[in-house]
């Protein structure tokens, strides 16, 4: 139970933080591979996330570099919990006064599944009560709640009457890279776009094109990867407000990340769309992401798409009816996607990301692989086509 005490104690060297990177379903193995690339080799992919142990530098690195994860939690305690009293006692037992001072603010997020306690709002409230009571008992006053921009975000997860209490080291969700200022009608989450690019296996040595790029999320995420730009370089993280925040270590990690950045060759990553407003956003997002002039966006109909070069990766995220237009109108578009890929993209590898499996049938080509992914709550397929 006293495990939490070492976490935020300033100056303390940390050797083993139990962490959990929450990941959109379908991207768990990729996140584990990303962690391995950061030198974290014990990552255990599970449903919706990856468990791993690391030290403070590893925690900062994971937040800075993970492209597929939505947040990184640091586990403080795990205890049996099937009623409000057990919840309160389990949370109260943690040394919160060492983690949060009365002049800081906090928020509690809760998720639960298959447990006796079924109301997430109640669990969050009870957790908050136990935290502030413990701090008041030790310090004489209590911190306030701030649900939008708290200093410390606490995460409580109940599964089969087991309660995990964690600190959310990311703060805002990691898909908020900081480059997207405005959203178009159907933007892809940045983490999902990064997952899609990673699943294609694209390594930045051959061209990548997105002929229906909208606000440019796929080209931007691909370009960030190829340019070796850390996705978190522009934003703030929850751990930066913790009492143990090591600003020197953080500055070193950011400086190290800056030195690895490379400029992309002309034509490596391109995006196309019919919608001028979306293209304007794509251009702005690209510049804001630190990629000014490195992704080329064109106003063009997908039907005219005819990539140069004998090989490359084309990723298409067409409208799929549920959010942007109606299904009937889209059948013809999906037929054309099949035609264009087959006739105009020979030698390339094609990928279509869609949330509508019925429409996908109209592509009329045989997919060589299918990946199940989620865009928020929408179940999607990423379909792979070898275009000989
Ligand atoms: C689902 S959205 C893509 C969203 C994008 N991935 C993003 O993150 O913003 C589909 C895009 O296809 C574009 N589109 C639809 N029909 C098109 C066509 N015939 N040619 C080119 N673009 C088209 C739309 O303008 C829209 O931006």
Can you tell me about this structure?
The protein is α/β, with parallel strands linked by helices and 388 residues long. It has two domains: 2-168, VC0802-like; 190-228 and 263-386, Vaccinia Virus protein VP39 (Rossmann fold, 3-Layer(aba) Sandwich). Helices cover 30% and strands 23% of the residues. It has helices at residues 28-37, 56-65, 84-92, 120-139, 190-200, 217-226, 247-259, 276-288, 327-344, 357-360, and strands spanning 17-22, 44-46, 49-54, 71-80, 105-113, 144-145, 152-159, 162-168, 208-210, 269-273, 296-299, 313-316, 349-354, 369-375, 378-386. Helix 2 crosses helix 7 (247-259), helix 3 (84-92) packs parallel to helix 4 (120-139) and helix 5 (190-200) crosses helix 6. The radius of gyration is 23 Å and the shape is elongated. The protein starts with 16 loop residues before the first strand and ends with a strand. The model is unreliable at 1-5 (pLDDT under 50). The structure holds S-adenosylmethionine.
At a glance:
It contains ten helices and 15 strands. It is an alpha/beta fold. The chain folds into two domains: 2-168, VC0802-like (2-Layer Sandwich), CATH 3.30.2130; 190-228 and 263-386, 3-Layer(aba) Sandwich (Rossmann fold).
């Amino acid at each position: 139970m006293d495990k939490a005490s070492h976490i935020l104690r300033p100056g303390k060297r940390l050797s083993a933080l139990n962490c959990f990177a929450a990941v959109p379903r379908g991207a768990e193995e990729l996140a584990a591979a990303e962690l391995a690339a950061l030198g974290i080799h014990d990552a255990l992919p599970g449903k919706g996330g990856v468990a791993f142990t690391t030290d403070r530098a590893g925690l900062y690195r994971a937040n800075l570099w993970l492209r597929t994860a939505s947040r990184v939690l640091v586990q403080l305690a795990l205890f049996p919990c099937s009623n409000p009293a057990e919840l309160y006692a389990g949370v109260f037992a943690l040394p919160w006064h060492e983690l949060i001072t009365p002049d800081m603010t906090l928020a509690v997020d809760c998720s639960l599944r298959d447990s006796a306690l079924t109301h997430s709002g109640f669990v969050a409230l009870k957790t908050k009560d136990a935290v502030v009571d413990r701090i008041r008992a030790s310090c004489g006053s209590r911190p306030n709640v701030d649900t939008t921009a708290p200093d410390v975000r606490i995460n409580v997860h109940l599964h089969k009457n087991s309660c995990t209490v964690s600190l959310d080291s990311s703060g805002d969700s990691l898909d908020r890279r900081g480059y997207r200022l405005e959203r178009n009608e159907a933007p892809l989450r940045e983490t999902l776009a990064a997952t899609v690019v990673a699943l294609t296996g694209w390594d930045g040595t051959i061209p990548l094109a997105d002929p229906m790029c909208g606000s440019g999320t796929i080209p931007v995420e691909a370009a960030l990867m190829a340019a070796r730009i850390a996705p978190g370089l522009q934003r703030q993280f929850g751990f930066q407000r913790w009492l143990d925040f090591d600003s020197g270590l953080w500055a070193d990690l950011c400086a190290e990340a800056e030195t690895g950045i490379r400029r992309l060759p002309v034509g490596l990553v391109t995006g196309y769309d019919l919608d001028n407003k979306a293209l304007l956003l794509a251009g702005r997002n690209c510049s804001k992401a630190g990629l000014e002039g490195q992704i080329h966006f064109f106003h063009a109909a997908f039907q005219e798409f005819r990539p140069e070069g004998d090989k490359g990766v084309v990723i298409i995220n067409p409208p799929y009816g549920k959010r942007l237009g109606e299904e009937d109108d889209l059948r013809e578009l999906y037929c054309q996607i099949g035609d264009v890929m087959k006739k105009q993209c020979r030698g390339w590898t094609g990928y279509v990301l869609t949330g509508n499996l019925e429409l996908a049938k109209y592509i009329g080509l045989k997919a060589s692989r299918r990946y199940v992914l989620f865009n928020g709550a929408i179940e999607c397929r990423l379909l792979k086509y070898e275009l000989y």
